[in-house]
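Customer escalation, tier 2.

The customer says the design service returned an amino acid string that "doesn't look like it belongs to this structure." They asked us to rerun it and document both sides in this ticket. The original structure tokens are below, unchanged.
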């Protein structure tokens, strides 16, 4: 599935190919049975739809939509819906597989799925987005289900789209089943604590790792790239635990302050600046890559994929990297970080807090009984600590990295599901 560029003869791996490469490395390290590996190399279901939508101009536009169910061996598939122009079959297959591993690492009774629509939501009116979202939900009515496949928000979608999908599915099935989707607004059965959950999971993973490394959080320093949902909650929660945040940045500006940045001041600032850090006065402005190579103990990439490249990895000073973003480290950089003995808490472990609280949302919907934010947070922290310790133990047992340890942890669990359910 690799794309070849004739002019330069450069071979670009597809995203699904790179998931397979990491899967195969774990399969080899743990000697997983070839039957199980074969099952996981092939997604269970792949649905492609075309969605005719009446635009505000009075013209009909056709949109491409996808849903991939990678596995259901441990329970119904779980995974977000992405609205972006680069959505394609290869990407949803890769992200669905990633969700299978993430849910298994987090010990959730779920398989993995992912969906998306190729569109640019920033260029569409609210009415166009609503018609597109309802058309997508209707086209997937036989795929989605409270005990089958449970979507959630991802890039370009939010609680608003989840509410439309919930309403459309409820109308089709003539029932009120809020657990068919997570990431809903609180008024429609969303969970308290969901908004900050991914950052909270990154904070818990960081504390667990510092503890293993014998570093006192109150004496530790950190840099956080990205100040959106994941980055801002991570920076706030780490600073509340006494970690000095010396660098923060987003796509508009990056700041450094040796004495520590006042994160609450930064949060107040972004409320007045249209959500961006540009113009913040709490530190000196530095170049974006200087954040990644800052002299801090902990680095949290919480913005984009592939930012820690080979070149950046050579210059990283942090002793610990906790991946808030999905896929921030390239495979080449991984080898360098390993040589430098830098511990990397991988994305499929570190950013699993979001899907963990999505699971809690589903559980609360099924019970029809809702927990306080403190109850959600307590259960979340315990779940993340258990996941961290399982990965740590496997990484040590197999004398490998936390990343491979996380894949091994996931595969051990999924293997049981595949074998217990059996083959035809
Ligand atoms: P977001 O849109 O809320 O925030 C993204 C942030 O990244 C913004 O502050 C943006 O300015 C910044 N950014 C963009 N380009 C940048 C650049 N070139 N340099 C520095 N900063 C840049 O998104 P989010 O929900 O916080 O997601 C961030 C990452 O975390 C993504 O990889 C996402 O897939 C992953 N993730 C998110 C969740 C979740 O619950 N939100 C869960 C798991 C994984």
């Amino acid at each position: 599935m690799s794309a070849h560029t004739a002019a330069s003869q450069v071979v670009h791996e597809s995203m699904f190919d790179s998931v397979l490469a990491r899967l195969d490395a774990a399969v080899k390290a743990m000697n997983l049975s070839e039957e199980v590996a074969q099952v996981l190399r092939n997604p269970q279901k792949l649905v492609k739809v075309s969605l005719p939508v009446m635009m505000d101009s009075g013209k009909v536009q056709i949109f491409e939509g996808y849903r991939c169910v990678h596995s259901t061996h441990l329970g119904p598939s779980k995974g977000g819906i992405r609205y972006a122009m680069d959505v394609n079959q290869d990407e949803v297959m890769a992200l669905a597989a990633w969700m299978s591993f993430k849910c298994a690492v987090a010990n959730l009774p779920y398989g993995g799925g992912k969906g998306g629509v190729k569109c640019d939501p920033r260029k569409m009116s609210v009415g166009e987005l609503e018609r597109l979202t309802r058309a997508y939900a209707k086209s997937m009515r036989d795929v989605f289900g409270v005990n089958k496949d449970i979507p959630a928000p991802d890039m370009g979608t939010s609680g608003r789209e989840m509410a439309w999908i919930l309403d459309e599915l409820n109308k089709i099935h003539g029932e009120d089943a809020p657990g068919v989707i997570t990431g809903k607004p609180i008024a429609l059965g969303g969970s308290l604590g969901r908004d900050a959950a991914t950052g909270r999971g990154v904070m818990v993973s960081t504390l667990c790792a510092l503890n293993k490394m014998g570093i006192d959080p109150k004496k530790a320093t950190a840099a956080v790239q990205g100040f959106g949902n994941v980055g801002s909650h991570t920076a706030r929660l780490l600073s509340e635990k006494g970690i000095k945040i010396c660098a923060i940045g987003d796509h508009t500006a990056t700041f450094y302050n040796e004495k520590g940045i006042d994160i609450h001041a930064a949060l107040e600032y972004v409320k007045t600046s249209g959500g961006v850090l540009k113009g913040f006065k709490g530190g000196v402005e530095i170049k974006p890559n200087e954040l990644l190579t800052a002299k801090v103990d902990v680095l949290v990439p919480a913005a984009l994929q592939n930012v820690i490249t080979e070149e950046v990895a050579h210059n990283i000073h942090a002793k610990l990297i906790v991946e808030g973003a999905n896929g921030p480290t390239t495979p080449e950089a991984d080898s360098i970080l390993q040589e430098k003995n830098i511990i990397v808490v991988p994305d499929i472990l570190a950013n699993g807090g979001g899907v963990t609280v999505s699971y809690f949302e589903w559980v609360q919907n099924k019970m029809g009984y809702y927990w306080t934010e403190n109850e959600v947070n307590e259960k979340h922290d315990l779940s993340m600590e258990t996941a961290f310790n399982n990965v740590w133990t496997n990484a040590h047992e197999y004398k490998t990295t936390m990343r491979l340890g996380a894949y091994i942890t996931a595969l051990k669990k999924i293997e049981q599901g595949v074998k217990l359910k059996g083959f035809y």
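Tier 2 assessment: The sequence is consistent with the input. The chain has 15 helices and 14 strands. Residues 1-12 have pLDDT under 50 and may be disordered. Sent an explanation to the customer and offered a walkthrough call.
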